[in-house]
Structures
1.
Amino acid sequence: MELIIAKDYREMSRQAATLVAAHIIVNPRLVLGLATGSTPLGTYEELVKMKKKGMADFSLATTFNLDEYIGLGPKDRASYHYFMFHNLFNGLNIRRENINLLNGLAKDPKAECRRYEKAIQKAGGIDLQILGIGQNGHIGFNEPSEVFPTVAHIVDLSEETRRVNAKFFKDKKRVPTQAISVGIGTIMKAKEIMLLANTKEKAEAITEAIEGPVRPQVPASVLQLHPKSVMILTEQAAKGLKHIFYKSNKFSYIEKKVV
Ligand code: GLP
């Protein structure tokens, strides 16, 4: 696992966007796994800027989002579908048919899970998976549990996740109780994984994920087993790390550590 410690959110976002843009140059047909939430917003903003300046061409790229709330449709401002178009896709030259999202209104969510897994396989799997992390260590909507879920599945959202994610809902009572999420197995099959975290509220989950044992109670800890993962963290999010030495300086990132 490689760690990049950025001094602040802006630098974290720039680092992440630069890596994505580099991947697109190396492989214009990149299959990109995408996350939602406040963490990747700055990265998406940077990518849109790069596209405008002609520095990133997404015309051949394919995307798969990680998850969606059950019961929310594309027009719902709190849906991940709406989020992605509003914050990223509308600003890129990506082709609509290459954008893959889970349907939160699917009549048969289990069939929707199967459809999505097949679509990922048909695309040849994910090349680069972007992840955020929940305060409880979840990735996608893979909540802490007794086992690591392998493929796309229906999730009962934890009270903690619903409380934290209520910030995206005008009416807090509307936070759905269920979601569809790709599984940990699907995430771990990605050729490369990039996890981002920036707030001090994530520090505990980050410490557990990097320095704790690999266990499904901290879903992100499974990344320790991935052959090519990078965590881009702000100093705030990294502040709980005990065994990793890093020091601050005025540059965008301080030190790369392989742990
Ligand atoms: C949601 C998403 C996750 C995301 C997490 C963190 O639960 N399903 O993919 O990582 O939120 O959100 P934020 O970035 O807003 O802290």
2.
Amino acid sequence: MQKAKAYSAASATSPLASSVIERRDPTANDVQIEILYCGVCHSDLHTVRNEWEAAMATIYPCVPGHEIVGRVTKVGSGVQNFKVGDLAAVGCMVDSDGACPACQDGLEQFCPGMVLTYNSPDKHTGGVTYGGYSDSIVVDEHFVLRVPENLDLAGAAPLLCAGITTYSPMRHWGVTKGKKVGVVGLGGLGHMGVKFAHALGAHTVVFTTSPSKTEDALRLGADEVVISRDANEMQKHAGSFDFILDAVAAEHDLNTYLNLLRRDGNLTLVGAPEKPLPVSAFGLIMGRRSLSGSLIGGIAETQEMLDFCGEHNITSDVEVIPIQKINEAYERMLKSDVKYRFSIDMASLKAE
Ligand code: NAP
Ligand code: ZN
């Protein structure tokens, strides 16, 4: 075991604070990474505050962070694809059983034995997994991704969750040229959704509650922007969308969006609000519309997404912060005041 610096929460109501955690020494298949940047996902906030208690209660102390980019500092004897000095990235998962049908299909995120990067039981330490708000991490090489060299690292970190979570459902539901695609909520996930929908050639419409984000939405690649609180504006798009991606972190009305889908259109939820969202049967049965969800993406698809970003020069629009600003960043995230992802410069942890 070795010590690592981290920021952790001691309870659902405590702010994140400096702490020291233990990391395992790399085993044969492990890669040890010095973390350079870690994105700040709304899931970090949901978990730190135990807002998902019903589905996955938080174990404290909690070290969040699953948008990790860094440099390899050590590799185990059996590691094939990484060497010391390489750029490397880690997303939301660090292990799975490798044998179940989901793993065989490259969909490790749906494996019953999937281990999350933080807040999952850790078979190596007997404790809980600790995430990327830390100066280092040790991960099985199967769950370590390659970062295209041309990408800015602070902006690449959020690709590991916000990127793959929006890319995967768009690929699954056939977002392409000629399709009309909506993205609801211009936050960390939403702004990546806009970039991908645009890069995939779709006619892209952003739904936002923040009129002040209109210009940014157009700059990010939207063809149209709709202020979702304006019922008249919403009505103009009734029955017209092939696909809508909903990336909202709080309670909101899904039915207004179902009504915007055309026949056989799909609304995919990636946002995970704390409370259930009521759905009207008529919004679905009229027009054989479907409502579905999507969870991050498998490892192979995550690499595909990173390579796509390398080719198209896509990164997240980030506000780089020192770790000492993390509690303030959470408060701003709750006010939808992020443009469009916080990325922690982990060099700031050296001062602790
Ligand atoms: P975020 O940066 O906070 O963005 C959420 C956006 O939702 C806000 O910027 C805001 O956009 C909109 N919004 C906020 N409150 C709203 C309200 N009351 N009504 C309508 N819109 C509202 O969060 P994020 O990191 O992108 O994460 C979004 C959600 O996805 C979270 O619940 C997160 O846990 C979840 N998530 C899921 C997965 C998955 O695998 N499924 C992966 C990562 C994250 P506007 O200002 O444009 O309205
Ligand atoms: Zn996330």
